[in-house]
Amino acid sequence: MTENSNTDKPWGGRFSESTDAFVEAFTASVNFDRRLYQYDIQGSQAHARMLAKVGVLSDAERDIILEGLDRIGQAIAQGEFEWSVRLEDVHMNIEARLTALIGEAGKKLHTGRSRNDQVATDLRLYLREQIDAVCAEIRRLQNGLLLIAEREAETIMPGFTHLQVAMPVTFGHHMLAWFENLQRDHQRLLECRKRVNIMPLGAAALAGTSFPIDRHYTAKLLGFDCPTENSLDAVSDRDFAIEFCSCAALVLVHLSRFSEELILWASAQFDFIDLPDRFCTGSSIMPQKKNPDVPELVRGKSGRVIGHLVGLLTLMKGQPLAYNKDNQEDKEPLFDSVDTLLGCLRAFADMVPALQVRTESMRRAAASGYATATDLADYLVRKGVAFRDAHEIVGMAVRAGIETGRDLSEMQLAELQSLSPVIQSDVFQVLTVEGSVSARNHFGGTAPEQVRAAVARARNRLRDSGN
Ligand code: ARG
């Protein structure tokens, strides 16, 4: 039997031999959960205040604990704290240091709690703050989109379905589509935040505690909306983290799609936009290259967060109530999801307002793909032709155009009239791309006037409710 050197561990009493060295490293989480330190300290300070309020700690003990924890927080922030893998995780590292600093009172801090409710509380405090940071970045990006949408309200580009030219749209309208995606992402995160902001502390290991704790008081101190209703649920639930990763994965799916567009648009074949040099890199072999690295990376990084979501769902699916050590595995995917999401949003919020639009090139592409064919069909319908017949007539006009290499607007009136006698010279107004977009002048439509109105409404929506 190995000699017992576990006596320095908070749970060492029950053990008669030391932890295997590999197992010690294998089970430790301190190398990644140390980033929860400030939330661990906040939680411990609120717990100490509550214990003093209900008479479990004296006021003097409370004060010395609060001060000791403050000092530990400062030491960690200044990089002067020595973390020990022997002490497993952030919770035991801080508690052990507290006792080393202040003596007896430090040993009383863990009264009426467990690391199980402690870690669940830390993680919720952390995530609440991160959600607020993510929401702020989403807003920054949305404001950038509104700027471009307003600036490019009249800029015409081809709208696509199946990546084939479909109908002309305004670039501003296209930007507002991404604004709406992000608007829903923001709403989802605020919904998720409600379920994050509930306090597990007091559930202790799983069954609560025999001390007369006041959980509502602790919840109030920590800014939680309320304590959790059920102690078993409190220590075992990680669905708040899964829900966040699902929100994060959706934001990144949106950014990934937007990235794909920017990458296509920046290519010589499209030539719709110019990404500023500061967001691109070159090639070490091909001197002419300017690569759209930032959108490519965002598109790539979205895969990590989708992976983390699936990883966390799988981590959870076989666990019986209540706490299981499996849950220690929730942190790295969650932390990486937060970091990845914040990084991608930041890159986009910086880059989007700096996009240079190649107006002429986009207009040319819209004017050359028979994008106004539907406008011609609608024109025929307004002159009394049934839509199906109109569709057929325009189809023949497009075929004639393709055969002779001309757009509809470049055809002779007589030629069009040979396909349908109802066509008059006013047809050329609807065949221009400008005529096409300004005709779509209804709520939610692509007309420049509607884009400006939508931008104004969007600004009010952001101002009024944060939603
Ligand atoms: N490091 C642990 C985690 O992250 C803290 C809770 C450990 N509790 C326990 N009884 N082993 O989940």
Describe the model.
- It is a single chain.
- The chain is mainly alpha-helical and 467 residues long.
- The protein has three domains: 20-111, Fumarase/aspartase (N-terminal domain) (Fumarase C, Chain B, domain 1, Orthogonal Bundle); 116-152 and 160-211 and 226-364, Fumarase C, Chain A, domain 2, CATH 1.20.200; 368-465, Ribonucleotide Reductase Protein R1, domain 1 (Orthogonal Bundle), CATH 1.10.40.30.
- The protein has 20 helices and six strands.
- It has helices spanning 21-27, 30-33, 37-53, 59-77, 90-102, 104-108, 115-151, 171-196, 215-221, 231-236, 239-265, 293-317, 331-351, 359-367, 373-382, 387-404, 413-419, 427-431, 433-439, 448-465; strands spanning 156-161, 164-170, 198-199, 226-227, 273-274, 356-357.
- The chain has a two-stranded antiparallel ribbon with strand order 1-2. A two-stranded parallel ribbon has the order 3-4.
- Helix 9 links the parallel strand 3 (198-199) and strand 4 (226-227).
- Helix 7 runs parallel beside helix 13 and helix 11 runs parallel beside helix 13.
- Residues 29, 33, 89, 115-116, 119, 325, 327-328 line the site of arginine.
